[in-house]
Each structure stands twice: as C-alpha cells, then as structure tokens.
Amino acid sequence: MTGRIGPGLVGEVMIPVRGGAEAFYAHPVTPGEEFGVGTIVVVVEYHPPRTVYVAQAMG
Asked: What is the DSSP string of 16-32?
C-alpha cells in the first residue's frame, strides 16, 4: 500500500505490470477494513481501468 485505505477513503497500491509498476485506486474487499501504508495486500477484484479491491496478504 502506498496510500492508507479504510472507510470513506480511497487508497493506492502499486502493481507490477509489464516489467514496471502502475498505481491503482484501492478499496478493501471487506467493508470497514483498514490498511496502513506499507501493508502487503492481494488483489481480489479488478475493475477497469484503475480500481482494485484488496485483502491483507497472509504470511
């Protein structure tokens, strides 16, 4: 996460694409969840052109 996400907030994640990295708007897949900057997440859903829904990565 490069920008905090949570209720009422739109965060940002950087996702590897074609040998580089691109920024996407991020929302939590579970309403009410919050993620701070630096949290490792997995993309659960993608909505073109630049929106993803994420969950915290396990591990």
From this structure: EETTEEEEEEEEESSTT
DSSP 29: S
pLDDT of residue 35: 93
Range of the domain at 23: 11-56
Cβ(16)–Cβ(23) below 8 Å:
no
Determine, yes or no, domain membership for 39. yes
Locate 44 and state its tokens.
């659960």
Contacts of residue 18, defined as CB under 8 A and 6 or more positions apart, other chains included, come to none
Structure tokens at 18: 């074609």
Q: Is residue 5 part of a domain?
A: no
Within a domain: 1: no
Instruction: Over range 37-57, report the average pLDDT.
Output: 96
Total structural domains within the chain: 1
